[in-house]
Amino acid sequence: MSTSNPSFNLSAAQARESSFFAGVYRWMAAGLFITAGAAFAVLSSPTLVMALYRNQFLMIGLMIAQIALVVWLSSRALSMPTGQAIALYSLYAGLNGLIFAPILIIYTGASIVTTLAVTAGTFMIFSAYGYVTKKDLTSIGSIAMVGLLGIILATIVNMFLKNSMLDWVITYLGVGIFLVLIAFDTQRLKAMYQSGSVDESATGRLAILGALIVYLDFINLFLFLLKIFGRRRD
Description:
- This protein is mainly α.
- The protein has one domain.
- 85% of the residues lie in helices and 0% in strands.
- The longest helix has 38 residues, at 6-43.
C-alpha cells in the first residue's frame, strides 16, 4: 500500500511554481538585455541615430510594427510554437531598443543607470507584493487598466497641446499606474499558473507571455521615472 505525503506534494508544487516564475523573470531580463543591446548598437552609429531622430515616418513605422507585434504575441503566445514565441518576443524587445535609442541621447548615462536601479528595486518590491499578498487585486488592477488608457489618450492630446503641466501629471500618474500593474500582473500570472488552465506542455509559452507582460510594466515604469529622475545632457 502506498500513501501520499501532502507536505511533499505541496513542496513539489511550490518548487514547480518557483521554477515557472524564475523562467518568467529570466526571459524578462533577456528582453531587457536585447533592448539595451539594440539601443547601444544604434547609439554607436551616428548615421542610425540621425535616421531615427530626424525621419518621422521611419519612427512611426517602427512604432506601428511594435504595437502590431505586441498585440499579436499577447493574443497568440499560448497557441504558437515555443520557438516562434521566443523569436517574436526577442524581435519586439529589439524594436523597443531602436525606438528608445533617441530618447536615451537626451539624458546623461549616470542618470539612466540610477533610474534603472530605482526601477529594478521598485519592480522587485511590487512584484513580490503581488506574489505573496492574499488580497485580490483584480478591482484595483482593472482601475489601473482604465487609467492606462486615459494616460495614453492624454499623451496623444498633449502631443498637440504641448502643455508642460499636463505632461507632468501624466508622468506621475503613469508611475502610480504601473506600480499597481506590476503587483496586479504578478498576481494574475500566479493565478493563471495555479488554475491549471494551461497544460504542462504550454508552461514554457506561458513563461514567455508572462515575461512580455512584466517586461512591458518594467520598461514603461523606467521611462516614466526617467522623466522624473533623468538629468538632461548639457
